[in-house]
Specification:
With about 425 residues, the chain is α/β, with parallel strands linked by helices. The chain has two domains: about 100 residues, Urease, subunit C, domain 1; about 300 residues, Metal-dependent hydrolases (TIM Barrel, Alpha-Beta Barrel). Helices cover about 30% and strands about 20% of the residues. The strands form four sheets. Strands 1, 2, 3, 4, 5, 16, 17, 18 and 19 form a nine-stranded mixed sheet that branches. It has a five-stranded parallel sheet with strand order 9-10-13-14-15. The radius of gyration is 21 Å and the shape is globular. It starts with a strand and ends with a strand. The model has no long low-confidence stretch (mean pLDDT about 95).
């Protein structure tokens, strides 16, 4: 099909018309300058007042299928991603069974293609069963149809340094990367349910200290230097971790990092009401850490925004705070949160948003068809955003199967209006096509 997008503001740099044919951008210009007339195309989108970004890419999504389809499926998670402006998402391996074989990875790939709303790229487990002891089928997953390049035991840290070293050495051969859930289980054990500090003591909740994250970040950047391999730090949450990553990059160590929307906006004081919606791992941190993450995302120390979208059925989340499951939704609201907290504050412009939510995530994951420039000859994976729209988040309006939405009732500025995957709209006027 052919598609004409009229009057979009390309990365905030000026209005242009885009002509798309057979999934590729074929012309950029204006109808007044001779761009093909709208009466010769199959579909036209009026993008007046909208910013055009390359389609968003999420490095860190939990889709729960197979095993917990009561919380999310690949189809429902793909729908949430499309609503959020994403054209590609990486599905974490902590499913039941775990994605630790080539067959399991190919199954995720096929289910994503069947859903057809975003490109679903499986993440392979680092260790068999996420047990942290024996390496999973890293090479076979890499050579499979799924072409797995990102490996993670997310939800669990690869706590054994010898195992982590072997994983880094193994993936170096095919250009892979280990995405690490940085949390030392000896410093923050299974009972830790929030940030360790004055508030956790006052609330009587067992906390985990910031250093539990920071020592693993420090260990892994040194292992990356030793092995000459790539490590990616998932959901960075502390100022100390930012300092280590900044130092490592200055040394030329191959490390990248992500921050979540919730760690960029929400703070640990929300725990005062014992609402389990705000229980997440790593935990929400004090405002000093949040400010450090914002600055690090703006200056490039943190490379990407990743949602850590973690849906949970009500019977897993609606418990006392210390017994509730970790995690919160993020796909549908991520762009609005970043618009509000980063663009609204002047820390990022829209080109910067494209960098941290599309270009860099695609580069880290090795997704060559995503995060591309908006230019003639490039794949037409695009997101159209209304930067002035004010939305009030309603958890009951979500297309996710779960309702653990930390943004419920909040007013955010900036909203996705359209998502286009290889020239085909999946979302128009904020609604699934």
């Amino acid at each position: 099909m052919s598609l004409l997008i009229k009057g979009a503001d390309l990365l905030g740099a000026g209005r242009q018309d885009l002509l798309i044919s057979d999934g590729v951008i074929t012309e950029i210009g204006s109808l007044a300058d001779g761009l093909r007339s709208s009466d010769t195309v199959d579909q036209t989108i009026d993008a007046d007042g909208l910013v055009a970004l390359p389609g968003l890419v999420d490095l860190h999504t939990h889709l729960r299928e197979p095993g917990r389809e009561d919380a999310e499926t690949i189809a429902s998670g793909s729908a949430a991603a499309a609503i959020g402006g994403f054209t590609a998402i990486l599905a974490m391996a902590n499913t039941t069974p775990v994605t630790d074989t080539a067959e399991a990875a190919e199954r995720i790939l096929d289910l994503g293609r069947l859903a057809g709303l975003v490109d679903v790229q499986p993440v392979g487990a680092v260790t068999k069963g996420l047990a942290g002891e024996e390496l999973a089928e890293l090479g076979l997953m890499a050579r499979s149809r799924a072409r797995v390049r990102v490996f993670s035991d997310d939800g669990k840290c690869v706590a054994d340094a010898r195992v982590m070293r072997r994983a880094l050495e193994y993936i170096r051969a095919f250009g892979g990367v280990v995405s690490e859930h940085a949390q030392d289980p000896k410093l923050a054990d299974h009972k830790a349910c929030c940030h360790e500090g004055e508030l956790s003591g006052r609330l009587g909740l067992p906390g985990g200290p910031s250093v539990a994250e920071e020592v693993i970040v420090a260990r892994d950047v040194m292992l990356a230097r030793h092995t000459g391999s790539r490590v990616h730090i998932a959901h960075v949450s502390t100022a100390g971790s930012v300092e280590v990553i900044r130092w490592a990059k200055a040394q030329g160590i191959s490390v990248t990092a992500e921050a979540t929307p919730h760690h960029l906006m929400l703070t640990t004081d929300l725990l005062a009401g014992y609402d389990p919606t705000f229980k997440v791992n790593p935990p929400l941190r004090p405002i000093e850490d949040v400010e450090a993450l914002r600055d690090a995302l703006a200056d490039g120390t943190i490379d990407a925004v990743a949602t850590d979208h973690a849906p949970h059925a009500r019977h897993d989340k609606e418990h006392t705070f210390d017994n509730a499951a970790f995690g919160m939704l993020g796909l549908e609201t991520a762009l609005s949160v970043i618009s509000d907290v980063m663009v609204g504050s002047g820390r990022l412009d829209w080109a910067g948003v494209a960098r941290v939510m599309s270009v860099q995530p695609a580069r880290i994951a090795g997704l060559t068809g995503h995060g591309r420039p908006i230019a003639v000859g490039e794949p037409a994976n695009l997101t159209l955003v209304d930067p002035s729209a004010v939305v009030t988040v309603d958890r009951d309006a979500s297309v996710s199967l779960s309702r653990n939405n930390p943004w419920h009732g909040r007013r955010l500025t900036g909203a996705v209006q359209a998502t286009i995957l290889r020239g085909v709209p999946t979302v128009l006027k904020g609604t699934l096509v």
